[in-house]
Amino acid sequence: MTAIATTRIAFASFIGTAIEFYDFYIYGLAVAMVIGPVFFPNSDPAAQALNAFLTFGIAFLARPFGALLFGHFGDKVGRKTTLAASLLVMGISTTLIGVLPSYEMVGWVAPVLLCLLRFGQGIGLGGEWGGAALLAAEYAPKGKRGWFGMFPQLGPPVGFFFAVGSFLLLSQALDDVQFRTWGWRIPFLASAALVIVGLYVRLKLEETPVFTRALQAHTPVRLPLTELLAHHAKPLVSGALMMVVCYALFYIATVFTLSYGVATLHIPRPQFLGMLCIAVLFMAAATPLAAMAGDRFGRRPVLLVASSAALLSGFLMQPMVSSGSAILITTFLSIELFLMGATFAPMGALLPELFPTSVRYTGAGAAYNLGGILGASLAPYIAQQLAGRGGLSWVGGYVSAAAAISLLAAFFTHETRDRELA
Length: 422
What we know:
With 422 residues, the chain is mainly α. Helices cover 82% and strands 0% of the residues.
């Protein structure tokens, strides 16, 4: 494989996840800032926040369905076409959120349409990650699967950086009324242009050699989901549980903490978004480091160390965040997102390695997105409730509990580094 081909594959696996996660994260940030007042205005601020966090969780419930839908066709038809379709579904859903009428304009229809489009976002993202990870892993040369599997994992920090950056610019350029009235819609509308770029890159690719050889040697299984549940349920559950800590770390450190910092600690929104921009750089830095370590030492040791550190990090939340100090809060956010990158990076190789070619798209995508339901779908909502009832120490305990689940799952999972994908 030439250097040009290698670069093209790495970029294609990266660009799609970056765009998809940009789409996903702008909604999470909007939830923390404007979704409640715009779509649930007839309630007190606490109820608005809880309702907004519930709409946030809808996409996580949809993601396994997206993984199964796109996984079915990805395992039967191929990775390339399926990846393009998932990107299109996500992009259309995100762009339409940007033109939704508010509750004041159409009443209850507005939150209903919002929930439907949020479900569409979940369907699209559910099909995206598994295909992008397979694209990288099935093209990877021997001994470099962890490194290649890193490129789709770089999509989330880059997508988040641009999502936060866009809202930060808008917060500085617009006053609060302008931002709540129309400014928050701009990042959603910008998604349309990004999707066009991603589709162009994806459609220029060839099918992965591993899938092509499998298609020539065997007829695709008729129902990949049935095959997965009948013969590969254990790695499906293990993969999902190992993903829990990644999601919990990320969405507690971003969506919940942003909402808490602005509403409770009264930190100005632009300042907190700037703090998140700094913290997400640590997530980006951890990703290649953990990927290289996974190729050298194995996926399992990296996950054991990072999950153990994440468990301990939960005890830092109450003293560092409640201090109100911008320096201490930024340090805490940086620690959490660094650990998120360290636990997330090995999964780009590990989840594809858990499953055979015939059900790999379905299995890797389903494990990834089931982990999302367990670790993230209700994480901001639960954290909001825990903070109200017991304070930030309870939220920190939630992070530690999520890390303990993933730590145990990694402990009971065999090393996958040396498995052949063909």
